[in-house]
Write a structure and sequence with these properties.
- It is a single chain.
- This protein is an alpha/beta fold.
- The protein has 3 domains: about 5-100 and about 200-260, Adenylosuccinate Synthetase, Chain A, domain 1; about 105-195, Adenylosuccinate Synthetase, subunit A, domain 2 (Orthogonal Bundle), CATH 1.10.300; about 265-420, Alpha-Beta Complex (Adenylosuccinate Synthetase, Chain A, domain 3), CATH 3.90.170.
- The protein contains 12 helices and 20 strands.
- The protein has helices at about 15-25, 75-90, 105-120, 130-140, 155-175, 180-195, 205-210, 245-250, 285-290, 310-320, 360-365, 390-405, and strands at about 5-10, 30, 40-45, 50, 65-70, 75, 95-100, 105, 200, 215-220, 260-265, 270, 305, 310, 325-330, 340-350, 350-355, 365-375, 410, 420.
- The strands form 5 sheets. It has a 10-stranded mixed beta sheet with strand order 9-7-5-2-10-1-11-15-19-20, with helices on both faces.
- A hairpin with a 7-residue loop joins strand 19 and strand 20 (about 420).
- Helix 3 (about 105-120) packs across helix 4 (about 130-140) and helix 5 (about 155-175) packs across helix 6 (about 180-195).
- Bound molecules: guanosine-5'-diphosphate, 6-O-phosphoryl inosine monophosphate and magnesium ion (MG).
- Magnesium ion (MG) binds next to loops.
């Protein structure tokens, strides 16, 4: 089972980090293919909790090679700080590989992320303010600086001078901010380059070779399907393609290299930042989910908006990813409810939508149609086998399987590795 993609099928924070831990034993390479340090993946290994933003979770396992692929946007300072923090906790980061084609997040990207959000006012996206959108914008405009530029001071200086001319004009004249000094910026970034140099390589080739040798490569999705730039709830999305298809371009493999596609979903739903969220719960239920599920952002600490499982969005995402299986996390959190709602369709101007609506206005204004399922009594945190789950919890999971039209292979009932209930083996797993 060489190529495995792990993809969030909601709006992020589905518990992808925990699931990478479960897969780690059988994995030799873990590659991030998109996003940057807007991600926050929580992972508990041997009782130790780690929150990783840019470094792939594979770093935590001595037998895994962690790879930051060409589709990622890299803030080198954050990468170095994250590596240092891991080293400080006894984790060896020398195996980390960094693609020379990955684009750099520059300080002016962070500044532009902040000022454009402010400028958007009530229309702001609620970004993580990590410079992600502006860095991808420059990549598409072909004025971005790449990791490999750090290794060639002359090229770095030339590119930086060209781009800073425009950025400084925009920052000073449009937004009334201070300009950046090219010399200071160059010195800082070239020193990052010296530090990162041993890690920089052709990571696509590494991944291809690993697959050729029959090694298991985990394509570690960050963000999630509903935040996909092309298929998510635009403009309230991130600026990359978290979908499984994005793993091909972002890591440098072909579609046939990915055989197993695991869609991760919470048993309910959360979203951070702005944007439509049809199944957002009423304030009382949202508060219960927030506190019971400890739904505070791993990256920004912001409280997450909470709601019920949205089967329309999940089905849409499952199709876009051609998921081969589903993993349902945080089932334990729902134990507090007597009745659990599931959004099975949307209603807008008298029409019922079971498929994702073709126009954003419908999605923005639709009303959720709920079905109610009976809750269960007792705590699920100790469940390990299917039989340990109350029949109502099993019925709830079966309903999700039916609505999403994909088999559940695992339900998670707590943050740690053993708090997992395996359903059935995935084909070939
Ligand atoms: P990611 O971005 O998809 O990796 O998810 P995050 O790490 O941002 O958020 C998921 C949170 O839920 C983390 O704090 C996890 O430790 C926690 N978590 C994961 N699975 C479960 C579960 O089954 N039950 C509970 N109660 N917490 C979980
Ligand atoms: P993980 O990998 C949840 C959201 C932000 C904002 C939008 C755009 O932990 O699941 P950006 O900074 O990317 O330009 O912000 O995307 N967002 C996430 N929400 N989990 C994430 O990552 C996210 N990464 C970005 O809140 O709404
Ligand atoms: Mg997260």
């Amino acid at each position: 089972m060489p190529g495995v993609a792990l993809i969030g099928i909601q709006w992020g924070d589905e518990g992808k980090g925990k699931i990478t831990d479960l897969l780690a034993e059988q994995t030799q390479v873990v590659v991030r293919y998109q996003g940057g340090n807007n991600a926050g993946h929580t992972i508990v290994v041997d009782g130790e909790r780690y929150a990783l933003h840019l470094v792939p979770t594979g770093v935590l396992y001595p037998h895994c090679t962690p790879i930051v692929g060409p589709g990622v946007v890299v803030n080198p300072q954050v990468l170095i700080e994250e590596m240092d923090a891991l080293e400080g906790r006894g984790i060896d980061t020398s195996r980390l590989k960094l693609s020379g084609n990955a684009h750099l997040i520059m300080p002016y990207h962070l500044e532009l992320d902040r000022v454009t959000e402010r400028w958007l006012g009530k229309n702001r996206l609620g970004t993580t303010k990590r410079g992600i959108g502006p860095a991808y914008a420059d990549k598409a405009a072909r004025i971005g600086l790449r990791v490999q530029d750090l290794l060639d001071p002359k090229i770095f200086a030339t590119k930086l001078q060209v781009v800073l001319k425009e950025k400084n004009l925009v920052l000073t004249r449009v937004y009334g901010r201070l300009p950046f000094d090219p010399a200071a910026l160059q010195e800082e970034y070239l020193s990052f380059g010296e530090r990162l140099q041993p890690h920089i390589t052709d990571t696509a080739l590494l991944v291809q070779r690993a697959l050729d040798h029959g090694e298991t490569v985990l394509f570690e999705g960050a963000q999630a399907s509903m935040l996909d730039l092309d298929h998510g709830t635009y403009p309230f999305v991130t600026s990359s393609n978290p979908l499984a298809g994005g793993a091909c371009a972002g890591a440098g493999v072909g579609p046939r290299d990915i055989e197993r596609i695991i869609g991760v979903t919470k048993a309910y739903c959360t979203r951070v930042g702005s944007g439509p969220f049809p199944s957002e719960a009423d304030p009382a239920d949202a508060e219960i989910l927030l506190e019971t599920g400890k739904e505070y952002g791993t990256t920004t600490g912001r409280p997450r908006r909470c709601g019920w499982f949205d089967a329309v969005a999940a089905r849409y995402a499952a199709r876009l990813n051609t998921v081969t299986e589903l993993v349902v996390t945080k089932l334990d959190v729902l134990s507090v409810f007597d009745v659990i709602k599931v959004c099975v369709a949307y209603e807008y101007e008298g029409s019922r939508y079971e498929d994702f609506p073709p126009h954003q206005t419908i999605f923005n204004k639709c009303r959720p149609i709920y079905e109610e399922m009976p809750g269960w009594t007792g705590d699920l945190a100790g469940a390990r086998e299917l039989e340990d789950l109350p029949k109502e919890a099993r019925a709830y999971l079966e309903m999700i399987e039916d609505l999403v039209a994909a088999p559940i292979t695992l339900a998670s009932v707590g943050p740690s590795r053993e708090q997992s209930v395996r359903f059935r083996a995935a084909d070939g797993a």
